[in-house]
Amino acid sequence: MCEGVLQTTVQSIVRFSGIGLHTGVPVNMAICPAPADHGIVFERTDIRLGNARIAALFDRVEQSPLCTKIVNHSGVSVSTIEHIMAALAGCGVHNALVRIDGPEAPILDGSAAPFVRRILSAGVKQLRSPIRVIEVLSTVEVHTAQGWARLGPGAGLTMDFHIDFADRAIGRQSKSLDLANGAFVRELCDSRTFCRASDVKAMRAVGKALGGTMENAVVVDGDKVLSPGGLRHSDEAVRHKMLDALGDLALAGAPLLGHYEGHKAGHTLTNMLLRELFATPDGYRVRECDTMLAARLPGAGVGAHEIPAVA
Fold first, then answer.
1. Which of 78, 154, 160, 211 is deepest in the core (most CB within 10 A)?
2. What is the pLDDT at residue 310?
3. pLDDT surpassing 70 at residue 4
4. What is the DSSP string of 44-87?
5. Which overall architecture, per CATH, does domain 6-306 show?
6. Catalytic position from the list 38, 143, 267, 305
7. Is residue 263 annotated as a catalytic residue, yes or no?
8. Domain ranges in the chain?
9. CA 197 to CA 234: how far, in whole Å?
10. Distance between CA atoms of 262 and 249, rounded to whole angstroms?
11. Is 119 helix (H, G, I), strand (E, B) or coil?
């Protein structure tokens, strides 16, 4: 087997502590090495009886507009996993057991950069099994009243995203990106989750954003950025939406080869898109990854030196 086409896992245990963005609950999380063909699996260590493991797969997603939440058949769940899923995909990690002692992943600084930094610092090791990729063969598209998302054939994983907010601090933003060879780490991983000041009270009234602060989210009000230090990028909002999309696409269970387009899309639309893809038997195929394909995957050849200095 040629170097660079084998599945990977983390070299050693990678630990994090923080609070959940929506629950406000303190949580400890550890990304642990796992064998080939294990995939990404979350385990609730605070649950002693029954099945506490949840596979990070699209068909385990319970719809939640503000985050990605996975649930197993016993009703055990973990929410706000999109940033850690994006970090694992962007670092080229295919297998890991994520052990967590609460119902929600830690938000840290609101981006994926802290996850990326520690994963790359610990190192990634190869396993004795080939990477299998999911190649999109035909275009699928889904719509809601808010926006739409589309996934079609592509040589690697590429993305076009467009957002449109009334607040002038965000406004209309568009970005296109080829996610091959570390582009996620260089271009997207440090972009933070964001919200409008007018939405904070409403979210907290329904038990959301209880752990949100000006340090772990970008809060905007009209043409003002209220969070200290301002923006990390002038288009940080659309970059974060792309970060979320990569994390949600990682729930396919293997690296995707295709072109994703999102117009005012979010977690729900991306999950609907994966469900539509996998409900279309001739819309995709699973194939082993050769060296040419491996070079086009998001985590190929990435290093910690590529993390933006602003994060």
1. 78
2. 53
3. no
4. ETT--SS--EEE--GGGEEP-TTS-EEE-TTS-EEE--HHHHHH
5. 2-Layer Sandwich (3.30)
6. 267
7. no
8. 6-306
9. 18
10. 12
11. helix
Mean pLDDT of 21-36: 96
Q: Which pLDDT does position 275 carry in this prediction?
A: 98
240 annotated ligand binder: yes
Instruction: Spell out the residues 6+ positions from residue 145 whose beta carbon is closer than 8 angstroms to its own.
Output: none
- Using alpha carbons, select from 233, 254, 253 the residue that is nearest to residue 243: 233
Helix segments in 157-311, DSSP class H: 183, 197-205, 236-249, 267-278, 291-294
Residue 61's contacts (CB-CB under 8 Å, 6 or more residues apart) are: 68, 69, 70, 71, 251, 271
Find, among 237, 235, 187, 233, the residue nearest to 217 by Cα. 237
What is the band of 1 on the pLDDT scale with cuts at 50, 70, 90? very low
pLDDT of residue 3 exceeding 50: no
Q: Which ranges of 56-205 would DSSP assign to H, the alpha helix?
A: 82-90, 113-122, 183, 197-205
Record the tokens describing residue 21, joined without a space: 């963005």
Averaged pLDDT for residues 81-110:
97
